[in-house]
Amino acid sequence: MTNSKLGSLAKQTAIYGLSSIIGRFLNYLLVPIHTHRMAAESGGYGIVTNLYAYTALLLVILTFGMETTFFRFSNKENVNPDKAFSTAGLSVGFVSLVFLLLVSLFLKPIAGALDYALHPEFVEIMAIIVAFDAFQSILFARLRYENRPIKFMTLKLSFIVLSLLLNLFIFYLAPFLKEHYPSMMGWYQTSYQVGYIFIANLICTTLVNFGFINEIKKLRYGIDRNLLKQMLKYTWPILLLGLAGILNQVADKIVFKKIVPGLEGEEQLGIYGACVKIAMIMAMITQAFRYAYEPFVFGGKRDTEDKATQASVMKYFIIFTLLAFLAVMMYMPLLQYLVGEGYREGLRVIPIVMMAEIFMGIYFNLSFWYKLTDQTWWGAVFSGIGCAVLLAINFIFVPKYSYMACAWGGFAGYATCMVLSYFVGQKKAPIPYDLKSAFLYFAVAIALFFVQKYIHIENTVLTLVVNTGLLMIFFAFICWREKDLVQGVLAWVKNRGK
């Protein structure tokens, strides 16, 4: 039974992972487009980084934990899943509508407080985008609950492909047309490219709504007030958890402009934000894992077998993410070209941010003990402490060390959450994690990272050959220690070939 569950999880993760991998790859293409066409010193990419950090924070507020809450209540015996979906979707939609009305009424003071008084439309556009995204998050959750990863993947990729095409138009075709056919492109201003990025996002987000017509029809059950009360009781700690968690991800990008104001702050933030995009391959992996693993855990039984499965999944998650970490670091001589030359001084943050993302993924794995026992307030406590650590490091060290302090702040914040959740979780709902293997894999991966870091070879091709050899050493070490895993994968591949 354990192997079949792991196989099912692997299949779901593979499909969600494919959409995330392709999606992130296409999204990564926006990074070279933006960073090669907008100079770092212009501060344009810093504005993009800053405003998207605000939208990430607002998305957590507007969804207020209803994704996880929907999964929890849809799997309760006495709850109709359709009512749970309708209640969650309509409540998030109502909150998002109120948010939009408030932003429209107080747009100028809000824009001024965020240092965008000259472009309040940036704030308004991003408010509409985040309202749509919040509502769509419940619709996407419905697809995950129904095990419909193909439609999930199609909608996600459609958004990203359209976004990529619009950005190619904004930064390449439109300037060409402006130069050669000025009468046709009177509306286009090169100095307003940042604004066009937000408009392109708004167009894409709006169009995605049409892909959810069937899911929107399922909201016909309305809001069940009694059910909503139960859901709100369950979800408010998840909201606090989500707020603390997202602040761990975006607080540095929000407070950076306050600590380092003006064009200098926008330039440095743009460099940091561009390089962090490369490191976000780890966030892609953990997100794909979360999409598959959350319904899997909430739909399972709370027995010894499931605890053993969770322990195995944790080990395999660590193995896979460390392999991804080494792959990115070993091929950095190629990946560096994803960002413009003026941004590459920030590449040194990548290993720190990637390791922080691994800690975040482990923390997510550890979080199910309090979610399954309805003690989600523990997550708020852990994440709140981690966020306090992150903010303290930012406020103390950013003035001296700039964005490097942001990277180490995230590292320390996630490490704090991870350690706290493990020790408290082992007392409340112990799971037999294989700590010996985890520490061993971390030690080997970090050792290989430092080996490649201090091997200086002028020839890029030879560097890649040596680094590939180091990556293969780690892969061979995995195969040697995890013979059962290798045999299981080979058997799965063999069966798929029949």
Number of helical elements: 22
Radius of gyration (CA) equals 23 Å
How confident overall, as mean pLDDT? 85
Biggest sheet, open or closed, and with what strands and sense?
A: none
Low-confidence stretches: none
Spell the H/E element sequence. HHHHHHHHHHHHHHHHHHHHHH
Percentage of helical residues?
over 70%
Distance between the termini: 22 Å
Shape: globular
Summing up helix and strand content along with how strands pair, one would put the structural category as mainly alpha
- The number of E-state strands comes to 0
Percentage of residues in strands: under 5%
Overview of this structure, please?
The protein is an all-alpha fold and 498 residues long. The chain contains 22 helices and no strands. Helix 2 packs parallel to helix 8. The longest helix is centred in the middle third of the chain and has 35 residues. The mean pLDDT is 85.
